[in-house]
Amino acid sequence: MPEPELTTLQARPVVAIRRVTTPEKIGDTCREIFGILGPKFAAGEFPMAGPPYARYFSFSPERVELEVGAPVAKPMPSQGEIAAGELPGGRAATLLHVGPYEGLKDAYPRLERWMKEQGHACAGAPFEVYETDPSREPDASKWRTRIYWPVG
C-alpha cells in the first residue's frame, strides 16, 4: 500500500456543483452530479484539463457538504448550478488509494494519522481525484483515487 507524502499543488480552475447530502448517499450524489456535468464536458462546453474530483467541505455522520467537478483548461463562467471555482494550490498531504471507492473511508484516518505524526495541520477541505475512469476500467480493484489534504 502506498505511503502518504507531502506535495505542492498548483491552483487549478474548475467547474463544479456543490451539494449537501448524507454519508450513505455520497455515491448517488456524485453520480447525479457527473450526470449533469458529463454531457457538458463531452460537448466541449467545459474543456476538461484533468480527471474529476470530489471535495469535502464538511463531513459528519448526518451531513456531508461536497463539491464535485473537474479542472478546466482556463477559468470559465458559472452556468446555472455549475459554478466556476478553483482547486487550491500550496502544500498538501497526499495518499494514493487503489481499489473500490468504499475503501476510501479507511484511507482518510490513515492520512490524518500521518499528518499528525509529521506535524502538519489541516488547512482546507480535502479532495479526491479519480485517476481511473470506471467506465474504462470495470475492475474496481484497479481503480486509483488520490486524496489531497491541504496542510499549513
What does this 3D model show about the protein?
With 152 residues, the chain is an alpha+beta fold. The protein has a single domain (5-150), classed as Multidrug-efflux Transporter 1 Regulator Bmrr, Chain A (Alpha-Beta Barrel). Helix content is 21%, strand content 36%. It has 2 helices and 8 strands; from the N terminus they run ββαββββαββ. The protein has helices at residues 26-42, 104-118; strands at 5-9, 12-21, 53-59, 64-71, 83-87, 90-98, 127-130, 144-150. It has an 8-stranded antiparallel β-sheet with strand order 1-6-8-7-3-4-2-5, with helices on one face. A hairpin with a 4-residue loop joins strand 3 and strand 4 (64-71). The longest helix is centred in the first third of the chain and has 17 residues, at 26-42. The radius of gyration is 15 Å and the shape is globular. The model has no long low-confidence stretch (mean pLDDT 95).
Placed side by side, the strands forming the largest sheet appear as 1-6-8-7-3-4-2-5
The CATH topology corresponds to Multidrug-efflux Transporter 1 Regulator Bmrr, Chain A
Query: What share of residues is helical?
Result: 10-25%
Give the percentage of residues in beta strands.
35-45%
Q: What is the CATH superfamily label?
A: Regulatory factor, effector binding domain
Poorly predicted runs are none
How many DSSP E strands?
A: 8
Give the overall shape.
Answer: globular
Number of helices: 2
Order of helices and strands: EEHEEEEHEE
Radius of gyration: 15 Å
Largest sheet: 8 strands, antiparallel
Structural class: alpha+beta
